[in-house]
Amino acid sequence: MMGVNDTQKGMFHTVQICDLVPEDHPLRKIRPLIDTQRIRNLCAPFYCQDNGRPSIPPEQLFMALLGGYLLGVRSDRKLIMELQCNMAFRWFVGLDIDSAVWDASTFSKNREGRFDESGVLETLFDDTVKTAMKKGLVSSHWSVDGTMVRADASYKSFAPIEVYQSPKEYKKTIRGEAKPKEEPVKIKKDDDPGNPTVDWSGKSRSNKTHRSTTDPDCRLATKSSKETAIPAYTVNAVMENRNRIIVGINVESPQGLTAETRGVLKLIARAKKRLKLKPKSIGADKGFFEKKFIRSLFKRRIEPHIAAKKIGSDKEHIRVRMRQRGIFYQLSQRARKKIEELWGEAKEEHGFRRFFRRTLVNVSQETFMMGWLLNLKRLAALQAFDPA
Question: What is the pLDDT of residues 92-147, one digit of tens each?
């Protein structure tokens, strides 16, 4: 017998929000690893303690942002929409079924007014590494790699840094008689004037001559000479090899081949200063087979297990090639590919192909958020594998 739709609706429902979240939901596995009181204590200096109207709990804001990255939701408005209809997400954030959801502008106001330069996300990222250290999950053999993340800027936003003028035009300009002339831009008549099509035919753009007007910290970059350069940032990470815990992550403005090596050296120094960690070996791809970088590792008494190129006759290059037949070198080369899997996971599942925010300070916050999320996922997986 074919069933029919029962149009009679119940007036009251006796159910708790936690009952609506499946036991095997990813949010259930990650939620116990987050100390909301820790977030509250870190944010306490940015709130008035004596008077004023009660604000939205800061731990709920951070949980909402973290949950949004976990679900691959990057827009603040879509994040609010998820909070309105996704019961598992509401439970993760700490809202009940009938709790009111705040406005989307709450995120941007709190970012700009409180948290951008507070270092809270960096501290929360470090806490995950310290938790892994206490459980003995961090080894002394690391891998490093960098990836390119698209900036939230378009090609049209790139404008010349300098406007060249003749001596006569310059004299008129400084006297206030004329304004500097800019290169004319060809715009199609049927184009939207608010978003015109810029004709760059016959003109060249480079990081030496052009800057983005919307995100001046990004640069035109590419990972291969066969690909088109895009506005991007370079994100570097250091991963320990045993359990794929990220012990350091940062973002740099692309500046040629040195952006990755320079950023990785900063991360090694940061791990020693903030976490009291120092690796015994570093595994990396051929992009790090560079004399100054190898020399820096030797000075720090770190074994450079770097994929060797056939070119390069300096003593640093020779010393790396001498290690190629060693078992530890081979194991490092096998393990260092795991960090590329983390980049793929971040880009495919959590929307890390493109930054949501602009300028180096703000994208750094996104980078620490992603590092925090990836470490929480690893800790949750390891805890499920070994509950003890």
Answer: 999 998 888 999 999 988 888 888 888 999 999 999 999 999 999 999 999 999 99
Integer Cα distance of 24 and 107 in angstroms: 29
Size (the chain), residues: 388
Rounded Cα gap, residues 151 and 352, in angstroms: 10
DSSP string, 112-172: IIIITTT-HHHHHHHHHHHHHHHTT---SEEEEEEEEEE-S--GGGEEES-----HHHHHH
Total-model pTM: 0.87
Cβ–Cβ < 8 Å for 305, 333: yes
DSSP codes joined into one string, 178-197: SPPP-------TTS-TTSPP
Give the span between the Cα atoms of 90 and 88, in whole angstroms.
Answer: 5
| Closest C-alpha among 56, 59, 54, 57 to residue 39 | 59
The neighbouring-strand residues paired with 303 are 281
Q: What is the dihedral of CA 163, 164, 165, 166, to 10 degrees?
A: 180
- Here the tokens at position 242 are 């045993």
- 261-308, pLDDT tens digit by residue? 999 999 999 999 999 999 999 999 998 999 999 999 999 999 999 999
End-to-end CA distance of the chain: 51
Query: How many of the other CB atoms lie within 10 Å of CB of 32?
Result: 9
DSSP string, 65-118: HHHHHHHT---HHHHHHHHHH-HHHHHHHT--TTPPP--THHHHHHIIIIITTT
Contact 319, 303 (CB under 8 A): no
C-alpha to C-alpha distance for 58 and 262, rounded to whole angstroms: 34
